[in-house]
Amino acid sequence: MPLTIETCVARHTGDRKEQQDRVALFAHPTRPGMLMAVLADGMGGHTGGAMAAEQVLIKAKQNFESYAPQSETPEHLIASVIDEAHVVIKLTRFTSEQDPHSTAVVLMLQPGRVDWAHCGDSRLYHFRGSELVSRTQDHSLVGELQRKGKLDEAGALRHPQRNVLLSCLGSEQPPRIDHGKQAPLVAGDSFLLCSDGLWAYFSEEELGGAIAALSAREAAGVLIDHARERAGGAGDNITVAIIKFVEAPAR
Fold first, then answer.
1. From the candidate CATH numbers 3.60.40.10, 3.40.50.880, 3.40.50.10710, 3.30.1330.10, the one assigned to the domain spanning 3-247
2. Which end of the chain is more exposed for a tag (fewer CB within 10 A), N or C?
């Protein structure tokens, strides 16, 4: 059956003084049916984090617009965005007084398939209806403890070192890049990209339920409002991108 998409991106500064997250959706300028979503959570002192996150978006747009599917794979394109943004962010350390770093989540839609990759603890969730199909695994200390069975989800949210990343863009070590894909796509598939300012306050069931029941725009608004309430005046920047696949209306 023919599909169409609903999309929304949204941000909230939370209780921070500065918005250091960045998010964007953009279509390919010449190839119909191709879309890229990118989200980055910047870190690194005043303006440094925002500058790092901005570099992720700039590099994503540049590389996506020059994508040549005859000669490169989706995995190669998405990895190049993260790798090259990492190099640029490292170089900015020599031209500024900050120590900039960023996470990255990059998703690319082509007709019939979605590919993605991430580095850090910003997440991508794939839901089918309200059910979770998969989500990215955090490159963080608590994420590693969870994978080893030493910490559960509730303990991870309370852990005093929950913000310690094991990999990110701009660090001394090359970024760790994990890939995922989904093909074919069906009505009811949805993808949520979000920073930890959002996912830290929700179960997977809550996220999937809201996205399945509401439009992309409505779901983004509801999730941000609830995250703000649950943060209790101590919330981080909140950033979200939602892509929903729905049946195309009959002509």
1. 3.60.40.10
2. C
